[in-house]
Amino acid sequence: MHFTIKPVSYLCNLKCDYCFYLPKGSSGILPSGPKVMPDDVLEALVCNYIAACPGDTVYFTWQGGEPLLAGLDFYRKAFALQDKYALRYGKKVENAVQTNATLIDDKWCQLFSQHQVLLGVSIDGPEALHDAWRKNRQGQGSWAQVMAGIDKLKAHNIPFNTLTCINAANYDQPLEVYHFLKSLGSTYWQFSEVVETEPEHVDQSKPLTDYQVKPFSLPATAYGQFMGPLFKQWVRHDIGRIVIRQFESLIACVLGLGHHSCVWENQCPDNMVVEADGTIYECDQTVYPGYQLGNIKDFGPYAQGIACAHDTGKVTVGTRGLDALHSGKLCACKSVLSPKCQACKYLPLCNGGCVKHRIDAVDGVPQSYFCAGYQDFLAQITPYLNVMVQLEQQKVPFTAIKGLIDQIDAAVAGK
Predict the structure, then answer these.
(1) 133: buried, middle or exposed (CB in 10 Å: 19+, 13-18, 0-12)?
(2) DSSP for 301-341?
(3) Mean pLDDT over each residue of the chain, to the nearest integer
(4) Prior bond to 348 cis, omega within 30?
(5) Active site residue 284
(6) Phi, psi of 238, rounded to the nearest 5 degrees
(7) What pLDDT, on the 0 to 100 scale, is given for residue 93?
């Protein structure tokens, strides 16, 4: 169980063309309500989440919109509440913030350092590629502001990860993106393939019978065009030094350790969302009325007044804890595969992809818009994955593949 927290809902100081969350306010998908999480919702979240997590460490992920719009005092309150309930329940807390970095200043850096917050920065590559779709409210590119925020993080010796959206502007320049991200000094990268449609894909159990892909979207067949060269650059030069989530996930999968990326897991994990008003949804990709699970204030110790009035965390009989919540509808959707998917040799690796992307229909069954792109990518990297498996079987770390790349490439070219 994990919660992605939206402390300011869809509010953002930028207006990125491809953002799927910002329009939820203007479209009425998210009801009008508090735009910064109220104190009672915040305490309910912290108390119930820490109480419900089965492990020793509880991971809080703050996202937006732009989560820094909640303000310094909001996070000071949040961290104080975490200390209180972590002590009560004998847990450790870690925090991560996904930000556009444009609001970062010395005061934010001091707070991040004090509480050892993990930062994720959204950046799509060099200036021209980033600014193509990631614009401010005045319609101007945001790259310079993002870089200023990154410079602040570096000045305070705060490590950060990067999140890059693969879209119509950057997919055909993978190595330019790669070298730029490497120049930033981050050693943990994530990539997210972008597709948005008109009409919106609201019901994940059904394909879209008639839709238009929005112009910023990654072309359906282009995933491999971007990720294939990226993988080959990485495996030759930077494996073991830079972590790329999608690549590490596939390696873990072929080594029998399971996926790290929810997109390619065989079921949707319970990675839920808490909105600013406390409403819980199955996933941040499905913040629609049909995927609501309740409100954070109606669960666990907080619902019984234990959080404020007692010293113990025992939940009254009949009160549901957050561990009772599951992404049931999404799991049901994930398990339905088209005949083409079921017959595909790459199914054990991609598991049909994210249900949000299953907008096409094959024999009436939803199938991923990115299917052909995934197949291209997986075909390119399978020879390398096979060698990694062989290395591990011989008790050699899979990262030793770096010294075998020329041989693998020669073998592939000779086929």
Answers:
(1) buried
(2) HHHTTHHHH-S--PPPTTPPPGGG---HHHHHHHT---HHH
(3) 93
(4) no
(5) yes
(6) -130, 5
(7) 98
pLDDT digits (tens, 9 = 90+) for 299-342: 888 887 754 444 444 434 335 788 889 999 999 999 999 999 99
Per annotation, catalytic residue among 284, 323, 363, 409 = 284
- Helix (H) or strand (E) run with residue 61 in it: strand 57-62
Question: 10 Å Cβ neighbour count for 87?
Answer: 10
**pTM value > 0.85:** yes
C-alpha distances out from residue 223 to 171, 274, 331, Å: 8, 30, 24
Region 164-180 average pLDDT: 98
Q: What is the DSSP string of 109-137?
A: HHHHHHHTPEEEEE--SSHHHHHTT-BBT
State the amino acid at position 167 in one-letter form: N
Across 9-39, b (16+ Cβ under 10 Å) vs e yields bbbbbbebbbbbbbebbeeeebeeeebbbee
Tell me the per-residue pLDDT of 104-127, one tens digit each, with 9 for 90 and over. 999 999 999 999 999 999 999 999
CA distance 240 to 397: 10
Residue 58 and residue 217: Cα distance in Å, rounded?
A: 35
CA distance 265 to 212: 27
SS percent in the chain: helix, strand, coil, step 5? 45, 15, 40
What are the residues facing 365 on neighbouring strands? Answer: 362
- DSSP letters for 139-184: S-B-HHHHHHHHHHHHHTT--EEEEEEE-TTTTT-HHHHHHHHHHH
In this prediction, residue 155 carries a pLDDT of: 98
**Can you give the length of the chain in residues?**
415
Q: What is the reported pLDDT for 306?
A: 57
Retrieve residue 413's tokens. 């070219």
- pLDDT value, residue 229: 98
Report phi then psi at 320, rounded to 5. -80, 135
Q: How many CB atoms lie within 10 A of CB 161?
A: 17
Helix (H, G, I), strand (E, B) or coil at 101: coil
Per-residue pLDDT band at 22 (split at 50, 70, 90):
confident
* Residue whose pair of structure tokens reads 């930077």 in the numeric block: 238
